[in-house]
Structure formats: C-alpha cells, structure tokens
Amino acid sequence: MTKLQNTSDLQNAHKLRIQFDRLRDDVLNLSAFGSDPDGGITRHAFSEPYEKARSWLKSRMTEADMDAHDDLAGNTICRLSPLEGPCVLSGSHIDTVPNGGPLDGTYGVLAALEVARTLKDSGLQLPMGFEVCAFVEEEGRYLDCMGAKAITGDLNKEDVMTAVDPNGETLSTVMLNAGFQPENAHRAQRDDIATYVELHIEQGPILEHNKCSVGIVVGIAGIQQHRITFDGQPDHAGTTPLELRHDAFAATAEYAFRAREMVKEMDASGSARFTIGDIQLRPGAANVVPSHVIAIQEIRDISAAKIEDITQRCKELADEITVRYDVPIQFEDMAYTAPVAMDDAISTVIAGAALRLNHPTHDMPSGAGHDAQVIAKIAPSGMIFVPSNGGRSHCPEEWTEWRDLEIGANVLLQTVVDLLWQQTTDEES
Ligand SMILES: [Zn+2]
C-alpha cells in the first residue's frame, strides 16, 4: 500500500514545475543587498549587507511556512517535513567576491528555496526531508568554504579564531558582530545528509558555446600550483651574441609556449587547464639580458592522475629547455587541492530529470570550486550548471538568460523529486 501510494505521489511530483515569477522576484530582490554604486555586488560573509540578506532570506523561508534557522557556523537552513531523519539537501551560497555578480551562489540558494515552495504547495507527503541551505563564506574572504566545511567536520577551530581578511579584519570579530560564537563554529557537523545537489551558473563559456542549457558536472577540478625559477645570467644586451647568452626570459617564453601546446595535445577530453598567470623578471632593464625569472604555473583537471602526468611532462620539458638555453630551471610544488568527482548515480538522476523536461545535457568539468566539493566528502553529491552569458562571472556583467534560469530550476526540482522518492523505493525494495 505504501509503495502504491508512493508511486502515484511520484507520478504527481513529476508533473510539478516551479513558479518562475517567485524565483525571478527573489533574484532581483536579493541583488539589492550589497549593491555597489557603479554596478556589481559586494556581500562578504558576516558583513552588514550579508546579515541583511540573511534576514531577508529567512523571512522568505518563513513566509513559505518553513522554520528558518542558522546553525553554529552561520549556515542558513530551512526544511520541509519530515523534520526528523535523513534529508536531501540543496543549496549554495549568498556571499560574493568584491564587486561580484547577482547569480554566483545566490541562484542555487533561491532555486532550492523555490523547489521547497513548489513541493510544499503541492501538498504531497515527502518520503524524506528536503532542506535548503545557504552555506556561509563559500568565497573564502576569511576561510574558503567555511560553512560547508563546518557541516562535514572539516572546520578547524584554530583556523576560525585566527582567520583574517585582506584588510586585516578578523573572522571572529565579524562573527561576533553578527551574533555568532566563533569558538562554536566547528561544532556544526552533521551526519543526516542522504544526498546533496547544487544548481549553479557555469561561470565559463562552454554551455553557451555548445548552445546547451543544462550542464551536468562530472567532477570539480583539482589545482596544482608550481613556482618555476629560471636562473640565467645578466649580460650586456648590446655586446653578447644571442647564442652565447643564458637568457632566462627566452627560456621561460619557450617553456610557456611549448608546455601549453603539450597540454592541449595530451588533453583529449578537454578538461585540463594550464595557466602561467604570474611572472617576475629581473633585472628588468631593456639593455640587460634577463637573468632571473619566477613563473607561477597552475594546472587544473578533474583527474589527479592527469595533473600528476602533466606535471611530470612539464618537468621533462624544463630539463630539455635547461640544456638548450643553458639556464637551470627549478620546479617547486605550491598549493594543491585534490579534484573531487561528483556521484555517477546522482548525475544519472539529473540527466533523467532533464530528459523528462526535454532538455539536452552536456557533461562537463567544473574549473571553479563549489560547496558541493566539500559536501561530497560526507554525502553522494551532484551539480547542475546553467550557461553564463559570455562565460562571465565574478564581475558585474555576470548574467544568465531568464529562460535558462527557469530551465535549471525545473531540472533541480525534478532531480530533487527523484532523489526523494528513489531512496525510499530503494530502501523498501
Ligand atoms: Zn559560487
């Protein structure tokens, strides 16, 4: 009987669609908190505009007849009944980078809220709880993905007490000002999240380029940074023939060009990224052969093995260039963040939901970090992307067409529906 009931509930839930007007109004209204005079939005975690946005969000949750609360770390949460037991969780963040855009993170939170409202309005009895979460401090003004890490038990109390922003403001002060106890933030750990799904703007150009409204994230890229030092010799630029120089910049330039070509050749899947984004050159005079270059190189991919492989090939290339230019090259490992795979089963559910709604999907890596990469440690997690106009993000120009925002929210709704019902069916069978 329960199962029959569940089956017909699921069929009814499959017919549900979000109310786009509510979502659009929420996106426009939330954009006002922290809006900069010349465009863009600055809403750092625990700042005054953030706390106003938090209050606004909680009042929207309450209006929808759900209890809104903040956990010990400052994550803002509401839940649809059943209020006890495991839940399907969806959300993202409402903090921004300085002078950021209106959709990064906020779209995922507001769409999850609209999904909750739609489920609530349907009157259907959910087989398990559904929660909406605005994870605090995703952007890492003080501590990267602080709220999500608190939930997974990866937040270190010492880190919270000592974290400062670029202006020297301490995290503990802004938390206290916002009414939170910093020494308790690490106690927000949970073990009742059955699955997690996050909807986010792509923040890159791939979906727009492929004319596809729905991306399914297969993994979140890991990042390996290297500091590469090229040690040449300063010589007179007028008297030293080219073949007798130890030109650190010429070596760097050839390395940068060939490494990039090599990564392109190795990268059949198109998921790898290779960037030399910072370079210091000495002595830095037009009439002296450059003697010393420090280049910061960043390799990203969703496969740890591929990052390792690219690193190895870069080192071999550096050895070859050392000989050719007689310029010793040193490789130093800097920061490393491991890639995180999204759960295949959840990606299949997302694909099924999109198919039901007649939207083609595109499997893709995420080059940017997200709350999902943290939550994936404790719960099977998946991510849905919608296109970013011109691939722009973290800037005032960040935008996505309303039509795509509506499509993404409906794909999220239908994914959540399947996750809610699928798990009960699985347990019963
Ligand atoms: Zn984000």
Which SSEs are present, and which pair or pack?
Elements: H1 2-14, H2 20-30, H3 48-63, E1 68-70, E2 76-80, E3 87-92, H4 106-122, E4 129-134, H5 146-152, H6 157-162, H7 171-177, E5 193-201, H8 206-209, E6 214-220, E7 222-231, H9 248-266, E8 273-282, E9 292-301, H10 304-325, E10 329-337, E11 340-341, H11 344-356, E12 361-366, H12 371-375, E13 381-386, H13 402-428
Parallel strand pairs: 3-4, 3-5, 5-13, 6-12
Antiparallel strand pairs: 1-2, 2-4, 6-11, 6-13, 7-9, 7-10, 8-9
The protein binds zinc ion.
Describe this structure in words.
- With 429 residues, the chain is of the alpha/beta class.
- It folds into 2 domains: 2-220 and 339-428, Aminopeptidase (3-Layer(aba) Sandwich), CATH 3.40.630.10; 224-334, Alpha-Beta Plaits (2-Layer Sandwich), CATH 3.30.70.
- The chain is built from 13 helices and 13 strands.
- The chain has helices at 2-14, 20-30, 48-63, 106-122, 146-152, 157-162, 171-177, 206-209, 248-266, 304-325, 344-356, 371-375, 402-428; strands at 68-70, 76-80, 87-92, 129-134, 193-201, 214-220, 222-231, 273-282, 292-301, 329-337, 340-341, 361-366, 381-386.
- The strands form 2 sheets. Strands 1, 2, 3, 4, 5, 6, 11, 12 and 13 form a 9-stranded mixed sheet that branches. Strands 8-9-7-10 form a 4-stranded antiparallel sheet, covered by helices on one side.
- A hairpin with a 5-residue loop joins strand 1 and strand 2.
- Helix 9 runs antiparallel to helix 10.
- The protein binds zinc ion.
- Zinc ion binds next to loops.
